[in-house]
Structures are given as C-alpha cells and as structure tokens.
Amino acid sequence: MPINLSAVASLVKSLRQVADRYPVTRGMVTYAILWPSGNLLQQTLDKSRDWWDLREAARYGLYGSLITAPLLHHWLQLLTRLLPGASLSQAVAKGYIDQLVFAPFNISQFFVGMSLLEGHPMDEALEEWSRKFLSTWMISLSVWPLIQSLNFGLVPAKNRVMAMSLGSFLWMVFISYMQHTRADDLPEGLSQRRVHYDYHDGPTELFGHRPSA
User: Keyword Glycoprotein, does the record have it (predicted)?
Assistant: First the structure.
C-alpha cells in the first residue's frame, strides 16, 4: 500500500505541536526509547544471561518515561527558575546543585521504584537501596556535574531532559547493572554493608556473615 506522504507530514506536524505545547513529552518519548535500550545492552553484556528479558526492558521503558522523565522535567524547570542565566559559573553551579540535591532522591526512587515494580516487597526494596545507594551516588558525582554543566550552559530549556537522556545512555547501562546484580555479587566498593555490634559475640555482619576476628 503506497505511503500517503501528506498524512505522514500532518502526523509529524501534530507531534511537533504537542511537543512544543507540552515539553515534558520530549523527555518522556526519549526515555521510553533509551531506557529499555540501555537495559537491553546491559543484558547483552551480562554473560549469565542466555536471552533478553523483554518484560524487564519494558519495565525500564515504562518507569523511565512515566516516572523519571516527568520528575526530571519539573526539577530542571525549578532549578532554572532558582538560578536563571546560562553563564559558565551558573551552569557549573546548577550542575553541582543537581547532584547534591536531586541526585540522591533520583537514585533512591529508581532503586526502590524498580524493585517494587518487579514485585519485591518494600523491605527488600529498601534493603537493596541501603546497600547500593551510596556507591552509586559517589560514581554519579564523578560523572554528572560536567554533563549537567554542559546541559545547562548549551542546551535550550525545553530540550534539556531529552539531551540529558541522550547523555545518560551509558549511565543507564551502569545503573541497570547495579539494580539487577545482588549486592553480595557486586565488585568490592560498589556495595555498602552495614555492621552492628552484638555485645555477647562481638561484631557481626547484618546479613549473616560474621567477619573473622
């Protein structure tokens, strides 16, 4: 059946009008594509997997587009109002404020939200967050201030969530790895283990392992 070029052009025009009227949709569409793509790449690199889990990738697409993208859109709008301007110093300041204020919340909602979406109970979701959050945030602090400084300094406000999502593709591969790898199986330094003290038997690992004296 021949393609009706006028109908395609009309559809493209309508989509562009929607994107201009509702800028949040730009980031939502981009995250709906890049988040599952990053997850599928992580699955490909995971040698323990023999096939792609498409439902897992779909969960990433839904969560990224419906939860994370709108959160980022409104946060970036707020940050732009609080610190207007696009000078180098302002862009750098916004990049670091983003990582010191919003990133801890964003990383936390990702770990907890994705765990709940996979059907895990809240206590398991919080357990995973507690063991993976700090190391993930430290790595984020070493990467994202520069990316966000460039984003705030060079990219128009309406396109910042979309630009951020393009820059976050490899980051998505990393946090997908973090989210789907058991804390005990992570390399040293990527998992935080909490230790409490038993007054009768000495220090014990909270999750069952007792360190040698």
Answer: no
